[in-house]
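Morning. Coffee machine broken again, so started the prediction first thing and wrote up yesterday's gels while waiting. Chain of 224 residues, entered below exactly as on the submission form.
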Amino acid sequence: MSKQFSAEIDDLRPNPWNSNHVGPDNETKLRASIRQFGLFKPIVVRELFDADTNTHYEILGGEHRWDAAREEGLTEIPVFNVGVIDDDIAKRITLADNARYGQDDTIELAKLLEDIGDVEGLQAVLPYTESDLNSIFSSVDIALDELDLPESYTEDAKDQAPEAKPEKVAKTHTIMRFKVAIADAEKVAELIAKTQKRQGLTAADELTNAGDALIHLLFNAAAE
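Came back before lunch.
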């Protein structure tokens, strides 16, 4: 039976098949996160006593957090024990734990980071580089008052058939920075998101998809 509780950190051992690796920079950030917030996400384990190492649980998910917690001097950590399971199921759980099923919406992520405000402090504990953050914030720095989009565009676009995306051969992109009036930022983000969905602009990363949607809006507005 699965259950969550606190376990002695030395009662855990890593599994021998984990394919997920963390670089030195992110290891440092992970330790900083544990110092600041504690270990708030349980380590996923199965019951597997090893007489040689005197450990009772094998880690299926969270090996890097467990190792960072040891380095930070924690003696007890939260675990979620799935019980006694065979190797095949254990390996599948490890893969599922390492996988990331979702993808951040760049515009919503930028707003969340702005709401928190302490970007420099967050960068010390989150796996984002300065380049990553610049790219995230640039996705919302668009001046609506310079776009001059017609108010009727959103309704008119519903009647338009989705345009086939041109084949991207040696296409390049560049980041352009503008500023959006706070009162208009939500409307711009919603319009771009709807255009991405309507036109099927999902083939690239979120920042590129948002830029392609903006270009689509501008070209259609200019043609009217």
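Residues 48 and 57 are 5 Å apart (CA to CA). Going to sketch it on the whiteboard this afternoon.
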